[in-house]
């Protein structure tokens, strides 16, 4: 009588990270973009660069063609604002779900419940290669701790979401990632768990994982010193205001963490209304123009077409999110240009990092 796998209905062989990388190797151009993106973000986090990290892009990627069109537009904006902003494209392939729903392009690239995960991994890697080869660094959220082996070599910045910041295995994973990592405050607004996550990920860890060939392994890490807190609101409250920034930075300093934050203009900070993101960015910009260097970055959910649509609608609106609502492109451009102007104002006023 068996006692194993009583609820498993099917198993398929998963492509190994090694094989996927062999099929789609990192080009010199992509590697240069990744290295430059990581270095720029590290310099901002360490206070060696007074620009603002700007993670901008769709809530999730479901259409690679629309993603490339968006990337071309964002690359132009990146070039225009490069003196004030370090613009990085948000390229999210995994979506955490409270109960149920589409889990992202890696899990279900066909958007039809066919769950062709090998295809999803391949699509994700090829898209990241294309965007990096354009000269645009990318950011993503890591949800499944197996996924970094497949695509982390193409990522300049990563997020750990509000639902997983308190997870031990995600803190362990972050401690071994080669890129900077932001931890979001919890869904109820608790920022202390993000501060604790930053402290944990900075240390050495030993845990079970997989090798590039797909074999089970014991992973040992040296710790990631490039982690930071992201404020995204929660529990019915926002936390992008000056008082909230003060409180979190004081708590960071008390716990031996760099007193700095990135602020997510979406999610609870905008009341889940994408059209309110510019107002959030305006408040953040006011703090920056007043000389605050503790705000090191922002996150903005943006796509070609504003708003969101339900998956299953036929046909889908091209360039519109099928998960959280996003800001439209024209509104994104305007908001980011204004934000860049606030960084320039701070600099012109002589409010340097040493002030």
TrEMBL record:
InterPro entries (alphabetical): Aldolase_TIM, DAHP1/KDSA, DAHP_synth_1
Entry's Gene Ontology cellular component terms: cytoplasm
Enzyme class: transferase
EC number(s) on file: 2.5.1.54
Residue intervals of the DAHP synthetase I/KDSA domain: 42-334
Biological or metabolic pathway of the protein: Metabolic intermediate biosynthesis; chorismate biosynthesis; chorismate from D-erythrose 4-phosphate and phosphoenolpyruvate: step 1/7
Protein's organism: Thalassococcus halodurans
Origin superkingdom: Bacteria
Record-linked Pfam families: DAHP_synth_1
Alphabetical GO biological process terms: amino acid biosynthetic process; aromatic amino acid family biosynthetic process; chorismate biosynthetic process
Family of this protein: Belongs to the class-I DAHP synthase family.
Keywords from the named record: Amino-acid biosynthesis, Aromatic amino acid biosynthesis, Transferase
Catalytic activity: D-erythrose 4-phosphate + phosphoenolpyruvate + H2O = 7-phospho-2-dehydro-3-deoxy-D-arabino-heptonate + phosphate
Protein purpose: Stereospecific condensation of phosphoenolpyruvate (PEP) and D-erythrose-4-phosphate (E4P) giving rise to 3-deoxy-D-arabino-heptulosonate-7-phosphate (DAHP).
Name by which UniProt lists this protein: Phospho-2-dehydro-3-deoxyheptonate aldolase
Coiled coil stretches, renumbered: none
GO molecular function, one term: identical protein binding
